[in-house]
Amino acid sequence: MSVLKVILFDLGRVLMHIDFDAFPNGLGLTTQEQRLPYTGLTKKIVRKYEEGKISTNEFLDAMVPVYNYRFSREQILNAFNDIIVEDNQDIIAFVEEVRAKYRLGVLSNTCACHWEKVERISSIIKIFPDLFTSFHLGVMKPDPIIYQRVCETISVAPDQVLFIDDLKENVVGAQTFGMKGIVFQNSEQLKSDFSLRKW
């Protein structure tokens, strides 16, 4: 059995609280009926942005016509950034505990403007020496290439890495690549699952 060396954390809903409804709500689209006409195109553009295929300016240029020019670039950017809320204070004790023994990293599907806000408002992110984002790497979880690039960058074997994410498909993707994995539900469950494993 390989010795665990690295613990890799997802960002949203693990290290930080996020609110996906904040974006449409910030544009005054508070019901599913109001949001539906824009959902499909918005998801496609956001994915390209999170894959690093378009810049923030290109993202905003694409989004304005999707919403029929009802909102300015600034309105769209401000509402979109409202998705990023605040640090998850409940997980800090666990992070502080494991950092004494393991190398820590973050692996997040995110985009440039959200990452800029995270760097501005988050204290917890400063704990992590290794920060990996989909828009920098040009690929998103659960694509195996993203896990490969992380391992290559920090020079560890996949089975020396534990990946913690709130989405099962991302954890399964990491495990398929050879990493260890825990699906995050809350901080107490994470502490319990972590302590029960033989690392």
The neighbouring-strand order within the major sheet is 5-4-1-6-7
Report the portion of residues in β strands.
Answer: 15-25%
Shape: elongated
Major sheet characteristics: 5 strands, parallel
CATH class call of the largest domain: Alpha Beta
Low-confidence stretches: none
Structural class: alpha/beta
- Find the CATH topology of the largest domain: Rossmann fold
CATH architecture annotation name of the largest domain: 3-Layer(aba) Sandwich
Instruction: Provide the helix percentage.
Output: 40-55%
> Superfamily at the CATH H level of the largest domain?
HAD superfamily/HAD-like
The number of helical elements comes to 10
Brief sketch in words of this structure:
The chain has 199 residues and is of the alpha/beta class.
SSE topology sketch:
Elements: E1 6-9, E2 16-18, H1 22-26, H2 32-50, H3 56-66, H4 73-81, E3 84-87, H5 92-98, E4 103-108, H6 112-121, E5 130-133, H7 134-137, H8 144-154, E6 161-165, H9 168-177, E7 180-183, H10 187-196
Parallel strand pairs: 1-4, 1-6, 4-5, 6-7
Antiparallel strand pairs: 2-3
Helix pairs in contact: 2-3
Please, could you describe this protein's structure?
The chain is of the alpha/beta class. It folds into two domains: 6-17 and 86-196, HAD superfamily/HAD-like (Rossmann fold, 3-Layer(aba) Sandwich), CATH 3.40.50.1000; 20-82. 48% of the residues lie in helices and 15% in strands. It has ten helices and seven strands. Helix 6 (112-121) links the parallel strand 4 (103-108) and strand 5 (130-133). The longest helix has 19 residues, at 32-50. The model has no long low-confidence stretch (mean pLDDT 97).
